Amino acid sequence: MHFQNDTDLYSVIGANIKHYREQRHLTQVQLAEQAKISLSYISKIEASGCNKSLSISVLNQIANVLDVEIIEFFKEKSTYDTNN
Known about the structure:
By secondary structure, this protein is mainly α. 62% of the residues lie in helices and 0% in strands. It has five helices and no strands. It has helices at 6-23, 28-35, 39-46, 56-66, 77-83. The chain starts with 5 loop residues before the first helix and ends with a helix.
């Protein structure tokens, strides 16, 4: 995995979080509540132009709720489309 800049990195992470959230049939509200983070934070993370830095701790909380390995958030969409 190689990202040209932070915006590209955050975009991939946000898209993956949204993908796995929708796959689990969770709303942003439900994910925020279960991960114990604010709804506005989840919304910003999933926004396509997100430039908000993310802590490993927050990513871990989200991964635990979604029951995925944290590494899945860093894979580009074409990678997980063929596997899931």
